[in-house]
Amino acid sequence: MQRAQRVRRRNGGVWAFQWADYVIVGGGLAGLATGALLADQGHSVCLLEAHERVGGAAHGFSKGPYYFDTGPSLFAGGSLSGRDSSDPLAQLLRLLGIKLPVARYNTWGVLVPEGRFNSAVGAKDFSHTLRELRGRDAAAQFAELQRFMKPLAEAAVSIPPVALRRDLGIWRTVTPHLPRALRHAAHFRLMSAPFSRVLDQVGVRDAFLRGWMDLLCFLLSGLPSDGTPTAEMAFMFRSFYGEDAYLEYPLGGVAALAQALKDALEKRGGKVYTSSPVQSFWTENASQRVVGVTLVDGRRIKASRRVVSCISLWDTARLLQDGSFQANAEPLPSFLHAHLVFKALDPESASTHFTDYIRGGQPPEHDGYNCHYIVVDNWERLTEPQNVVAISIPSVLDPSLSRSGEHTLHAYTPATEPYELWENLDRERYRAQKLARGQVLLDAIARAVPGCADPDSIRMKLIGTPLTHEQYLRRYRGTYGAKPLLPWIRHDLPAGLALAGENSFPGIGVPAVITSALLTALGEMPATLHARYLQRLFE
Which fold has domain 5-58+255-330+484-508? Predict the structure, then answer.
């Protein structure tokens, strides 16, 4: 039943108190997804976002005449268009009836110690690159890994994330999928094991192939193969190395995904309040139950059912000012960011700009440019600072994101920048350090992207640091999130409080945070209703 109440006006019409069934703190993808699903069940939902726009890390921003897309940018084929019924994001979008216009592509640029090449998703192209780069033995090792991972990938998607629950009602929601799951039961024992165990068991010895798998793990979870669950990599193998693999990007940028979820929430009667930072969780003195939130401006919002925290573990603990919850996890490092506008070369010049590509590789897909590049300086220092740079040029796929004859670019070091280096700097030292440590981004861009080595081609350049990440995303020490632990730690929460997003199982990354949102939101309904709710997805 939709219901909301507001009483006690203050300061000329600003509401001093209101309530809803669910109050959600944090308007990133997890908060928006959780809110939209709860509203879809008929509950009243109030979502609070500290920033002026929703999306969390998945957002865009304007600077002068330019628009920059930022945040997650690598989406498996079918995850945005809703065509892949095994992808948690696709399942969410289908449940909510969201259809996003997308661009399809399959090639990204790679610069590693062994050379430069364009890599297309799909096992066939990568096998060809391996033979050119490392010889037949490396290609044979990958073929054996691919063979070993195929049934694991089928096992990973045999029970859809949308059917999972955190209580005994899971038996009712997963029963229709048990016949398929039981066919793969022998493979489930490996799902929670680190992926390095699979690499060892298969006999992956080639240094490049081993480094490449560590890189994919690192980009997926923030840790190399010895810290990444096999289940995550099994799902990734299906998405990246399947026969019909491709990639998608949302037209309008990743902010279009956040906006679509916001629209879905509001269409169902939910309320979204931006520029509304929360000061603390509101607890009852006697029971210590969380019953709502207090905003920085003094307003209080009561939750008749539950408060859902979609912010980091450490920020969640901070809002529980009585110390009743501790973030028992290690924070991963933060980021360096660069946002550039540069003059695009003509297609022929861009296509022939670099001459050192490994023989036989794929050409860039779009007028001499790829949408994505990855630059690795040293395999031995994969998770160390100043070593890996990821680059996204969304205007390659969606020209509306830049002015004619230009491209907008986002580059970052993926969760490797120590926050400690940026603490307690005065303004002059901060500026000097930003120039010095940001140079790794500019060097990688110059190496990877046609025309960007010429300073005259750069129209605008912005460098962000862990302090930028901390300020604009309001994240504890600018952290990427909690370092994954195997097995995942279950957090003891006060009554009335739930978690959703990267602060809870299964962890970091878009598929993981959407899965967490599904678990939290659908777990609020009885299992019998949950099972009926799923019929519209799988019929």
Answer: FAD/NAD(P)-binding domain (3.50.50)
